[in-house]
Amino acid sequence: MRPHLLLAALFLGSAAAVAAPGTTLYAHGHVYTGNPASPWAEAVAVEGATIVAVGSDAALGKYRSRGRTVDLKGRTVIPGLVDAHLHLLFGALTLDGLNLSTPERSLTPNEPEAFVAALAAYARQHPEKRVLIARADFSTAEPNAPDRALLDRAVPDRPLVVHNASEHAVWVNTKALELAGITEAPLDSPAAEKGVFRNASGRPSGMLLEGAQDRVHSAVLNLLGTEEKLELVRRATRYLNSFGITSVVNATGNLAEIELYGTLRDRGELTVRTRTAFGAVSVPHRLTPEFLADLETARTRYHDDWVAANLVKFFADGSTGFIPPLVYRPAEYRALVEELDRRGFQLMTHAQRGDSVHMILDAYENAIAKNGPRERRLRIEHSFLISDEDIGRYARLNVIAGIQPAFCCSELGTGYDAKDPTVSDRWRTLLDRGVTLALSSDWPCMWPPDPYLNIQQAVTRQAWKSPDTAVIDAGVFDGAGNGGAKPLAGQYYGQSEAITVREAIDGYTRGAAFAAYAEKLVGTLEVGKAADLVVLSQDIFAVPAERIGATKALLTVVGGRTVYEAALH
Question: Which runs of E-coded beta strand occur in 419-507?
């Protein structure tokens, strides 16, 4: 989490809904355009919010007299990064809260006294907060999952919600259970109830998995006023800008959340382009009249360069326990996919299990057959485990693979069974079959949402392990940089599935833009496209692979406006 960069950033105005003034020439650079026909340049000229020329310093010299010139001094420039899968509001809440799972250290309930002390100190420091949010690593499998009693010791008088680093579980105190209305009585939704840990008397333990946690999320958001939520999002988008991120696909959301981004756009305060999916973590969709009306309202009202919808997110499985739990029966999922596809929505589905991937491909193939050909850009998120049979179907059905390289590689890759010989994270094979890769952080599951560590991991596939979380038996991500994980010297996982630096950057730009139906606007530096670009601290194409993760954004431009700047000397 590089707070020194965040504090040092100089934000020079908002990007959205305001035309950037004048002409700017970015000259004397090492510019990777991402355009396969002309991948390299020295200079980029911008008028207002749009790129008007890309080429050599000599060819673009005429733009010097038309406005200001930024001397790049040979630094590397790439297109603005498109994070193809993150959770913006979750990230905003965590950024504002207490993060106990950072790249440097993971403080877990296995150190109960230190854990309680950290939470109690945070509560004392923030008497103004009506609800306290934290993030930590903890077990999500009984009988070793922690109980609310520990949190009640830390904060007995206010709701406390501790997000699991995976964002598929929350651990809450008694006040938070009361806020969410979770009592000894079973929840009205069987799908949610199965995620509530209870004792033999029906008392909730404070551990809520998968779909059950949505009760707490909704209660917390209802407690916050609109201006509070807008400020959280403002801070989060500027934080993303500090990494060179200029566009995102927000992989969970609803109409109310999209309206927040619309409000910021209208105020000229939105500094990332957003495309938001309807869906909540592991909550099965029900095609109620209200849900369908919200979907239609969102895609009718929000379809511009800054706020877009028309996307539905499914969860085929979860991310807790020893093996991710299933969310749908195949026939139920297939029917939902067929109907939403018939209505013209783009679909994306979370899948961590190989059998989930197979079920998704079956449903996608059925929808194509039933509803006829069109450009769908169907997506499968994570795509950890894919059989040889299903690899071919990704290409044949034109399914986009949404991947997060930093989740690879623990000692088992991202498999769940040490006896399963399937190699996970088959990025090279997918690319070689012609499949589009869309790279992302899944922030706040990855912390921070560092694209350069993701790119490093895509290239190296180095094995990582966290000594802090080694004793936790389920529900832990110990991939690159997560939860105190350290690289295991000389150990790599399935290096034949690694991709190149250029391919990884393409996945974070051109591929991710394509996955968001935004390739005509962003993803490459070409004449007529939006002036979204990033100046880097080092030549990401030339440094040793193990040092790629040290790259920093020095300058982030969105729509011709500088939204983040560090020293350029």
Answer: 437-439, 462-465, 486-492
The pLDDT score that the predictor gives to residue 478 is: 73
Residue at 326: amino acid letter: L
Q: In the predicted model, what is the mean pLDDT of residues 266-282?
A: 98
Question: Residue 490: how many CB atoms within 10 A of its CB?
Answer: 7
pLDDT surpassing 60 at residue 2: no
Q: Cα(202)–Cα(186) distance, rounded to whole angstroms?
A: 8
The length of the chain is 569
**C-alpha–C-alpha distance, residues 148 and 170, integer Å:** 11
User: All domains of the chain, ordered by start, with CATH?
Assistant: 3-80+524-565 (2.30.40.10), 88-220 (3.10.310.70)
CA distances from 125 to 1, 50, 136, 150 (A): 20, 45, 19, 19
Q: What is the separation of C-alpha 77 from the centre of its chain, rounded to a whole number of angstroms?
A: 23
d(CA 49, CA 35): 19
Q: Report the amino acid identity of residue 118.
A: A
Backbone angles phi, psi at 441, to 5 degrees: -100, -25
Reduce the secondary structure of 183-196 to three states and give it as a string.
Answer: CCCCCCCHHHHCCE
- What backbone torsions phi and psi does residue 205 show, to the nearest 5 degrees? -80, -20
Instruction: Classify 305 as helix, strand or coil.
Output: coil
What is the SS3 assignment for 312?
strand
Q: Model confidence over 423-442: pLDDT tens digits? A: 889 999 999 999 999 999 99
Residues 6+ apart with CB under 8 A from 15: 270, 271, 558, 559, 561, 563
Closest CA relative to residue 345, chosen from 397, 284, 280, 291: 291
How far apart are alpha carbons 285 and 312 in whole angstroms?
9
Over residues 108-132, the mean pLDDT reads 98
Tokens 């929505």, residue? 345
In terms of Cα–Cα distance, which of 132, 138, 83, 92 is closest to 115? 138
Q: Rounded to whole angstroms, how far apart are CA atoms 69 and 43?
A: 10
DSSP 136-202: E----STTTS--HHHHHHH-SSS-EEEEETTSSEEEE-HHHHHHHT--SSPPS-HHHHTTEEE-TT-
